[in-house]
Amino acid sequence: MHVAPVGGTAVQDHVALAEIELCGELIIAASAAREERLSLESIDEVLRVAEERDAQGE
To answer: Given pLDDT bands bounded at 50, 70 and 90, which one contains residue 19?
Structure first.
Protein backbone atom coordinates (compact mmCIF):
# COMPACT_ATOMS: atom_id res chain seq x y z
CA MET A 1 0.00 0.00 0.00
CA HIS A 2 1.31 3.42 -0.97
CA VAL A 3 0.47 6.40 1.24
CA ALA A 4 1.04 9.95 0.03
CA PRO A 5 3.66 11.77 2.03
CA VAL A 6 2.57 14.49 4.41
CA GLY A 7 3.53 17.96 3.31
CA GLY A 8 3.37 20.19 0.27
CA THR A 9 2.80 17.53 -2.35
CA ALA A 10 -0.89 18.25 -3.00
CA VAL A 11 -1.80 18.47 -6.66
CA GLN A 12 -4.62 20.78 -7.63
CA ASP A 13 -6.66 20.26 -10.75
CA HIS A 14 -8.02 23.75 -11.35
CA VAL A 15 -10.54 22.60 -13.95
CA ALA A 16 -11.95 19.97 -11.60
CA LEU A 17 -12.13 22.50 -8.76
CA ALA A 18 -14.01 24.95 -11.00
CA GLU A 19 -16.46 22.23 -12.06
CA ILE A 20 -17.05 21.25 -8.43
CA GLU A 21 -17.72 24.89 -7.55
CA LEU A 22 -20.24 25.23 -10.41
CA CYS A 23 -21.99 22.02 -9.37
CA GLY A 24 -22.24 23.34 -5.83
CA GLU A 25 -23.78 26.58 -7.08
CA LEU A 26 -26.33 24.62 -9.12
CA ILE A 27 -27.23 22.48 -6.11
CA ILE A 28 -27.73 25.57 -3.96
CA ALA A 29 -29.87 27.23 -6.64
CA ALA A 30 -31.95 24.08 -7.12
CA SER A 31 -32.57 23.71 -3.40
CA ALA A 32 -33.69 27.34 -3.14
CA ALA A 33 -35.91 27.24 -6.24
CA ARG A 34 -39.66 27.41 -5.87
CA GLU A 35 -40.30 25.32 -8.96
CA GLU A 36 -39.60 21.61 -9.18
CA ARG A 37 -36.81 22.07 -11.72
CA LEU A 38 -34.56 24.94 -12.68
CA SER A 39 -35.38 26.43 -16.04
CA LEU A 40 -32.67 26.63 -18.68
CA GLU A 41 -32.59 30.39 -18.14
CA SER A 42 -32.08 29.89 -14.39
CA ILE A 43 -29.25 27.44 -15.01
CA ASP A 44 -27.60 29.88 -17.43
CA GLU A 45 -27.93 32.62 -14.82
CA VAL A 46 -26.36 30.49 -12.08
CA LEU A 47 -23.51 29.46 -14.38
CA ARG A 48 -23.11 33.07 -15.58
CA VAL A 49 -23.32 31.99 -19.23
CA ALA A 50 -24.28 35.46 -20.51
CA GLU A 51 -21.36 37.06 -18.64
CA GLU A 52 -18.97 34.52 -20.16
CA ARG A 53 -20.32 35.18 -23.66
CA ASP A 54 -19.93 38.95 -23.15
CA ALA A 55 -16.36 38.48 -21.95
CA GLN A 56 -15.56 36.45 -25.06
CA GLY A 57 -17.17 39.01 -27.35
CA GLU A 58 -19.91 36.77 -28.68
So the answer is: very high
